[in-house]
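Re: the 214-residue chain
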Amino acid sequence: MPFSSALRPSLLLAGLAAIITFAACSDNPAAPPPGAGDPENISLVTITLTPTTSGHAVATAFIRDSDGTTLPKSPNPPSGPLLLDKGVTYNGTIDLKNDIDPDSVIAISDEVEEERDFHRFFYTITNDTLAARDSINIPPTDAAAKVDVPLSSLNLDSLGNVFGSTFQVVVDPAAPGGGTILNAQLHHFEQEKGTGLGTTFDTDLQVNFPVTVQ
């Protein structure tokens, strides 16, 4: 399943860096990388966080790559920060689309869902955008933010392994106000992924959304 070619330009919004990477994803590793006109290029990534208790606003933000490929121009920065309230748990979703042609919008998320045994999403609350990462490129967690994405909240694939198209964000009542980052990644495996912690994969997506606890 091809997606767009890899690039990691830095983006700044409200003093926070946002990174977006679209990488080639194909069940045939010999397949050529998609071009700008490929219908499966991702042009829109949307995170939606819905509070599980009443009286709090839905938080949503998107990143748009207007021509569906990170080359030659860099994608736009996120639409804004995800505004979260202290002491609230949010149900999260990530949505991937190709909406370059508004008359023929392609739901990339549906294709990823169909191949969920070969994909895994990762979500990390971090204050690190470019510095040291672990062996599978996951940034360190910002424990001081007191905002968490519990592994147990991620939904599973058909084999009972972590998939993660849905998740939760838990904000501690003692969370300090201010900003941090939600890093979201999508890894693609040529074989069934198991836990998804193996080091042989393609990075289909890597995005940073600013988060503000208020």
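Residues 1-24, 26-39 have pLDDT under 50 and may be disordered.
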